[in-house]
Design goal:
The chain is an alpha/beta fold. Helix content is 22%, strand content 26%. The chain has a 6-stranded mixed beta sheet, with helices on one face. The chain has a 5-stranded mixed beta sheet with strand order 5-6-7-9-8, covered by helices on one side. It has a two-stranded antiparallel sheet with strand order 12-13.
């Protein structure tokens, strides 16, 4: 008979959010997530990119009706971060930029005369210091106890295919957003098992700027890390029909 350990080690709760894409976010999905966070009470919150869309700064051809929304999306993102901080006042919150936030850096580099203006830093635009939110750039390394936390720079055709590609690329366990899909891929290497997660999205899944319905899933990932250890268990939570169901608890509008 296998031995059963009855004492449960102390764990730290972590939640990963990504791809809100203000102003193309889904208010219903975000409301559900904030309710979940108040219930879950995480010690760590990671926003892993594309909080903002920055459409106006894109190098692509633009719809004139969407180019004047930059201040609007900044206001929306700042309000979300403020409400998030209230929902978990004691948590450590990390914001790592995605490729859409990187549009700001690329724009500023193309206009060096304003590149060094402090008012145009991400910290200033989103009040990150005031909200006590740690900020990481798109190309900076970020780990949670050895677990890679990044936005991602790979996209494959189907759910979990990108997770497999990222695991192949990093040869570490980790998580990315970017694809707007949920998925998980495992790989065993000699004496260790590695895993990579795709984190889903909290933006609209049928945006008006895409013809047809893309293969996206709304959701997020939560984890429990054993304190003073790199051991963890992660669960992916899919938002379906404006509902979250987890451990017997139903969250709905």
């Amino acid at each position: 008979m296998p031995r059963v350990r009855r004492s449960v080690p102390s764990t730290e709760k972590v939640i990963f959010l990504s791809d809100l894409h203000f102003p193309h976010h889904d208010p219903a999905a975000i409301s559900l997530v904030l309710s979940f966070i108040r219930w879950f009470e995480p010690e760590y919150v990671y926003i892993i990119g594309d909080l903002l869309d920055f459409y106006a700064l894109s190098s692509f051809s633009k719809d004139p009706n969407r180019t004047l929304e930059l201040q609007k999306e900044l206001d929306m993102a700042r309000e979300f971060l403020t409400v998030l901080r209230r929902a978990c006042p004691d948590a450590e919150i990390f914001f790592r930029e995605g490729n859409h936030e990187d549009r700001l850096q690329r724009y500023l580099k193309a206009h060096p005369e304003i590149f060094n203006l402090r008012a145009l830093t991400m910290d200033s635009l989103l009040n990150l210091t005031e909200l006590n939110i740690h900020h990481y750039g798109y190309r900076e390394d970020l780990f949670h106890k050895g677990f890679c936390v990044e936005h991602g720079d790979v996209v494959r055709k189907k759910s979990a295919y990108t997770a497999a590609a990222m695991l192949e690329k990093r040869v570490k366990s980790g998580i990315t957003g970017h694809t707007h899909r949920l998925g998980v891929h495992y790989r065993s290497l000699r004496d260790q098992t590695l895993v990579w997660y795709e984190n889903g999205c909290l933006c609209q899944t049928k945006p008006d700027y895409i013809i047809g319905a893309p293969d996206w899933q709304q959701g997020f990932t939560i984890g429990h890390w054993i304190e003073s250890s790199q051991r963890f268990v992660l669960d992916q939570i899919c938002i379906t029909n404006q509902k979250i169901f987890y451990q017997g608890v139903l969250f709905k509008l």
